[in-house]
Structure formats: structure tokens, C-alpha cells
Amino acid sequence: MSQHLLLPLVILVIGPDPGTFQDSAFSPSQEEPEDLDCGRPEPSARIMGGSDAQPGTWPWQVSLHHWGGHVCGGSLIAPSWVLSAAHCFVSNGTLEPASEWSVLLGVHSQDEPQDGAHVREVAAILVPDNYTRVELGSDVALLRLASPARLGPTVRPVCLPRASHRFTHGTSCWATGAGDVLEADPLPRPWVLQEVELRLLGEAACQCLYSRPGPFNLTFQLLPGMLCAGYPEGRKDTCQGDSGGPLVCEEGGRWFQAGITSFGFGCGRRNRPGVFTAVAPHEAWIRTQVMGSVPGPVFPTQPLELQSGPREPMEENCTVALPECGKAPRPGAWPWEAQVMVPGSKPCHGALVSESWVLAPASCFLDRISSDGPPRDLNAWRVLLPSRPRAERVARLVPHENASWDDASDLALLQLRVPVNLSAALRPVCLPYLEHYFLPGSRCRLARWGRGEPASGPSALLEAELLSGWWCHCLYGHQGETVPPQGGGGGGPLLGERREAGRCWNDSRWSLLCREEGTWFLAGIRDFSSGCLRPRAFSPLQTHGPWISHVTRGAYLEDQLVWDWGLEGGETEIQTCPPHTEHGACGLRQKAAQMEHLWPWLAEVHVAGDHVCTGILVAPGWVLAATHCVLRLGSTTVPYIEVYLGRAGANPLPQSHQVTSAPPLLCQTEGGSWVLMGMAIRGSRELFAAISPEEAWISQTVGEAHFLPPSGPPYWSPEGSNLCPLGMAGASGPPRAALLLLLLTPLIQG
Ligand code: 4AZ
């Protein structure tokens, strides 16, 4: 079980404990005569990343119930005393009444009755006077039971260390509890006690890990009286609900409680080991509280040679773990690229997220998913992975429960029959935690996702830049809304990508990979509702981390690695979307009910306060107008220009304004979108200059303008009402439009 210490030990056999070798250096005569034996489980005999304990292995473990439900762990230290953590009982600075609590002893699984299991009421809860908050230390509590526990094979006390006791750094110890098995993922029924082996970390090593920015960009100062146990790479840890439970280390055949589970930043995260209250420094406080209680807790003396045992080697002081996921030899060579081969279908692209699991869109498999069990031909499914000579077989398909109706949850997990060995050529992509915020301006790439056709053109075109959350939010149908600051907001509801040439690839589907410090995260999956719109929108993956972790129990979630917000500041202020970037799409009108917004792209361009012409909103923030309307012939100065959006036709113009140009020419396509075909030529109400020759210039300037695919003329309705007369725009040829693009400042009035 735990690592044996290679020390010159005196071998003693203490009867009547049958069959146990007591390789103990602790002489019973050093204990007070009325004390019990401690720290010895019956022979034979979550914690995150742990496993089910065997009954009777940890007979001092208790479960503390508040109003009948498990809240914290604790350890039996004497028949009438339980040791736990102060933070379990103090809320808002007040100690909760003892009468609300009960102690379950000898419980291996909380679902079924076991021999020897029993409950005790709590007579008193004692907490050190100086306890205020977990991060400030002294997170220790004593519970006096209303009546003594019934000791037996499954109920026995643990040994306590004296103040002089030294636990060697690097020793393997064990933490136990019935807490969450992952962050926010409770231990499932039948709630079998979990055990996990954790290494004791020296203070310097632990402080070094906690000094690296981690979750929420927080660092933390370890205080005297705290100790750390776990691994730089994380994955094994205590978690919520384990608090108050014991961290025990075996020395000379007895188990000593080195720590009390106290807190940590998340559970099982890289460079964030669990923090425990060190028990040894509390010897005096414990002795004072239990004074006169017979039998009391046992503090066996540690042999002197162990007290001065080997200390932490210096070179171990600062070994931080680096991410194990998301490393690619070069962009485009993705070591997590997976292709799921289903007989009778095209390959479906997904991503390896752990040694055993592949994430892919559920829509690839929806025709195979039925409510009455796994797909019948699952046996014939295969997964192709980089650098693997043969295709992997699939053991299980787990679609997201909302997959069939919610595009943002179009996800399924496929479990491989045999886990793969990771290597530089085959490794999982990193997944973001819920609070991950991909910074606007992040460098991202699009990767194949699902059953799309391959992109035409070189893959360099698939580079993307994240748009700021608010801008993207505005683009996608939240015109005129106020967007709150997005500091901790998990990246906002949508991610955008703008530096991408090319049009709409029919049916091509993409996932969005974003890089932080050279590590690639799967940041988003294609949101189908965005169709061919630019910038593309992606559904963020953050919200799915808990589901993916829950199903896979081993997916590589990784903390945010980049925190540099730059000096933009825009993300920390409240922003208001421009009122009429209609649905982020071009040329679509609201339902007829909102007549005042019949032409939501029309802009009133007020020039130097005296005349008005009509502009066209071609992208959020960009209005196209005729040059002659804005610039006076012969004038070299740019006049003062104001642009009003969303009120075309709604308000009569003030008398003093003269209207200087005819409205632009719009035609409706078969799909229902309105397309700007021409701008009126100076002085004419019938002649229009065509827009299409200016497409490249507009595209380059604006970046986000939506041009329809070149093929297909505008739709020609048989009734002809409200549509363009044939052969005017587009066919009108020279003169070319003299166009001007106006960039709006964000201070647009609604
Ligand atoms: C808790 O909330 C808690 N990973 C306990 C232990 C840890 C984190 C949280 C350590 O009780």
C-alpha cells in the first residue's frame, strides 16, 4: 500500500493482534497507560483520481452529517473525540450549533448498513480562537461526541503526531473521503469511501507550485501550520466534501495523521496540490481541549532518528509540471486528430481528449443513436489516430444529452476499447475549464470537425483571430443591447474569427483551436446557425468541460495559461452594441411588424449639418456612401459627418436639411436576402453605379462585409413588385461608383 521506510526498525510483535507484524519502533510504554492502541487497521483488510477503499482499511474515517447529509470528513482520535476542519462548522464567522451535526462511524458505503457502523450525536464543536478563514490557517476542529464510539474492527482511532514529529517530504501518504471525484462532480452511489495515495511536498516545493499563476490567475502564500500533498502534475487530489478528513502516513506499522484536508485551488489541477492543516503543530491545543477525557487521543513518540530524518533535497524545490496536452509539432499537424469511421458514412473528424476518449460532433452519429442501447454495429466502428499503425476499436458511444436539439451541445464521446500510449505524435488536445477566458486577439486555427468537405485553398487561410466577446455578441443578433464586462465571463457566448479569406465552404465544419503559451486548447465548436456568416461564430467548449470530465474521468483540462490583458480595457467596460447590425447577417429584415425598421441597413449621413444623403450599413461600424454626397467638389477638407442608424423613414428630417442623393439600389435574392447592387450616380435618380467591381476594395477595408457568392444573379420574382428592373444595376457598366467608406466610432446613438 504505502511506501515502506527503509530504516533500522525494531521488530516487535504485540499480542493479541493476530497476524500483524508490528515493525514498530514505538514502545507502548511511551504511551500513557490508560490510552488505547491507535493507527492500526484490522489486518486483511473521493477524492479525485482515487479508488474504492476496502472495508476496514481506514477505521478512523468518519462522515460528518449536517441536517442528515454528508458535508465533511473527520477522524476518530479517541472514543469520544473526532478531529476535523474548522471551516466545516464556521459560516459567516459563526460556529454552527453542535445539535445540527451527527457523526457516522464505521461506514464504508453510505448506501447500505454495515456491521459495526453507528451514529453519534455531537455534544460540542471546538475551534481555535484564531481561526478566521481557511487560507489564513488554523483550520482545525474537535468534536466531542455525546456518547463514546463503539470501537471494533471497523471503528478505531488514528495516532496523532507530537509537535516534534517530522514527516519526511516525498513520503507517500493516503487521503480518504467521500467527497467529489472531480470538481463539482459528487461521488456516485453507493458512496464507497475513496482512498488516494499522495506524496508529501516540502514547503518550498509547494510554495513554488502555488507561486505560478493558475486558476483565476491567483497565487497563494503557504503559511506555517499548513502542509501540501499531491503531485505537480495534479490528477490525484482531495476535493470538496473531503474536508476535515485525514491524511495519514504509516510509520513503523502505525498510521499517523499528518494532515487534515483543508482546501486547494480546484481539484487535481496541475501545480495546485491539496493543502492540509498540519496536525503536529496543534498537539498542545488538542491536548488542552480533550484534557481529562479517558481514554484520550494517543500521541506516540517518534524515534529521534526519524525526527532528524532526511529533509527535502534542494533540487526538488521547484519542479513545476508542464502541460501534457495540446502540444503540436507545428500548426496543422495535430497529434489529437481523430477520424471516426462508421460503416456506410464518410469519416467524421474529432479530437483525442484522453488516452481512452475521442470527442466528435454527435451529429455524425445521430442516425445510429437510439434510446434502446448502443449502435448495433459499434463493433465495426474504427478510430484512426496519428502515428498508430492500426485503427482503434470503439467500446462505447456517449452522446451529449442535448445533442439532438442544441447545436452548442453537438458533442459525443467515443471510448476506445484499449487506451493508447501517448507520445509526441499522439497526444490529447487541452480542454478549457469553465472559467477560461480566451483573450480577444488570441491566435487561433480552424481544425476539421465532423463530416465537412475539406476546405478549398491552402490551410494558412484557416488562421483566425478571436474577436472581443462584445463585438461578436453584437454581430450575432443582440443589436442595441448592453453587453456587460466580460472579465471572468468564460469567453462570452460566442467566439469569432475574422482573418480568413474565402467564402462559405458548403457543409464544412470546423472546431476552433486557440493557443496559449504554445499549448493548444479546443476552444469552440462550429455553431451551425452562423451558416456562411463572417466572422464565424463558435460555441465555446468551456461549458462542456464538466460533462467531458465526468464521462471520461481523465480528459486533459488545463488552466488558462495567458493572462495578459494588454491595455485595451474595452473588455472591462460596459459596451452597447450598435443598434442595427441586423442579425450579424446581411440583407435580412426583421418581421414585417417592425415597419419603422423596414430597411435596417439604411443610414442617414448628415454632412456638415446641412444636407443628408443615404448610406448603407455594410458591416458593423462601416457605412458606405457616395463620395459626391460627402465631399464637396473642390474642397480639400473633410466635413463634420454624423451618421444615424435605425431610423430611416422613422423621423421626418428637420426642415433645414436638404436631401442630396437618391437612395441606393437593392435587389432581393432567392434566399430572401437583400443585396446592394448600386449607388445612385450624382444628379440621377435612375442611374446607378454597380457595387460589384468595388467588392475587393470594400472587403479589404471592412473585413466583415458579407458578399453573396459570385454565382447566381439576383432572384427575379415573377410578380416583380418591389424588385429591381431588369438589367440596370450590375449591367450598368461605367461610370464606376465613387464610393466612400465611413468608419463609425462606437459612440453611436440609438
Ligand atoms: C473543499 O472545498 C476542498 N483539492 C477540499 C480540498 C481541496 C479543494 C477543495 C483540495 O472542501
Kindly describe this structure.
- The protein has 750 residues and is mainly beta.
- It folds into four domains: 8-22 and 58-294, Thrombin, subunit H, CATH 2.40.10.10; 341-416, Thrombin, subunit H, CATH 2.40.10; 431-576, Trypsin-like serine proteases (Thrombin, subunit H), CATH 2.40.10.10; 601-716 and 728-743, Thrombin, subunit H (Beta Barrel).
- The chain has seven helices and 40 strands.
- The strands form nine sheets. Strands 10-11-12-15-14-13 form a six-stranded antiparallel β-barrel. Strands 2-3-4-9-8-7 form a six-stranded antiparallel barrel. A six-stranded antiparallel beta barrel has the order 16-17-18-21-20-19.
- The N and C termini lie far apart (69 Å).
- Residues 1-33, 456-461, 484-507, 567-571, 579-595 and 710-735 have low confidence and may be disordered.
- Bound molecules: 4-(aminomethyl)benzoic acid.
- The site of 4-(aminomethyl)benzoic acid has 11 residues, from β14.
- 4-(aminomethyl)benzoic acid is lined by residues 237-240, 242-243, 261, 263-264, 267, 274.
Summarize the topology:
Blueprint: E1 51-52, E2 61-66, E3 69-78, E4 81-84, E5 90-91, E6 94-95, E7 101-105, E8 118-126, E9 141-145, E10 172-177, E11 194-201, H1 203-210, E12 226-229, E13 246-251, E14 254-263, E15 274-278, H2 283-290, H3 304-307, E16 337-341, E17 348-352, E18 357-360, E19 382-384, E20 392-399, E21 412-416, E22 431-432, E23 443-448, E24 463-465, H4 469-475, E25 482-483, E26 495-497, E27 510-516, E28 519-526, E29 536-540, H5 545-552, E30 557-558, E31 575-576, E32 602-607, E33 611-619, E34 622-626, H6 627-630, E35 641-645, E36 658-659, E37 665-668, E38 674-680, E39 688-690, H7 695-702, E40 739-743
Parallel strand pairs: 22-30, 33-36
Antiparallel strand pairs: 1-11, 2-3, 2-7, 3-4, 4-9, 5-6, 7-8, 8-9, 10-11, 10-13, 11-12, 12-15, 13-14, 14-15, 16-17, 16-19, 17-18, 18-21, 19-20, 20-21, 23-24, 23-27, 25-31, 26-29, 27-28, 28-29, 32-33, 32-35, 33-34, 34-40, 37-38, 38-39
The structure holds 4-(aminomethyl)benzoic acid.
